[in-house]
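Input/output pair, single chain:
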Amino acid sequence: MREREDRFHVETRVSDAAVCVRVAGVIDIATVAAFRAALWAAPTRTELRVDLSGVGLLSAAGVRTLVAARSWVRSQGGNLVLVDPPPMVERVLRATGLGRVIPVVGVTPERVLAAA
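Output:
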C-alpha cells in the first residue's frame, strides 16, 4: 500500500492567464528531475501555480527546485504560486522560509484556474 501512496505523478493544466502543475506523491531525490522537467516544460503564462495538495513529502531537493523555478518564472516575467500544501509540506515551507518568498494559497487549483 505504501508504494501506491508514494507514486509520483505530475499533471499540467493551462488556461489563458495561468498554468497549474498538480503534483502527487513524494518530491525527493528520486523524483525531483521529473518535477523540475514538468515545471520547466510548462507554457509561459503570467502565473505558474504548483498544486501541492497531493504531495506527501517535500525534500530539500524539492525545495531547491521550487527556489530555482521561482527564479526561472520571474525571469520570464511571471509569478510562481504554491497552492494548497498539506500540513507536512506547509511545515517544510515555513521551516525553510520558502513560504515567505513564494506566495502560498489554500484553495484548490480548479477554483484558482476558474478565477483566472
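Confidence is low (pLDDT under 50) at residues 1-5. The helical segments are 2-6, 32-41, 60-75, 87-96, 98-101, 109-115.
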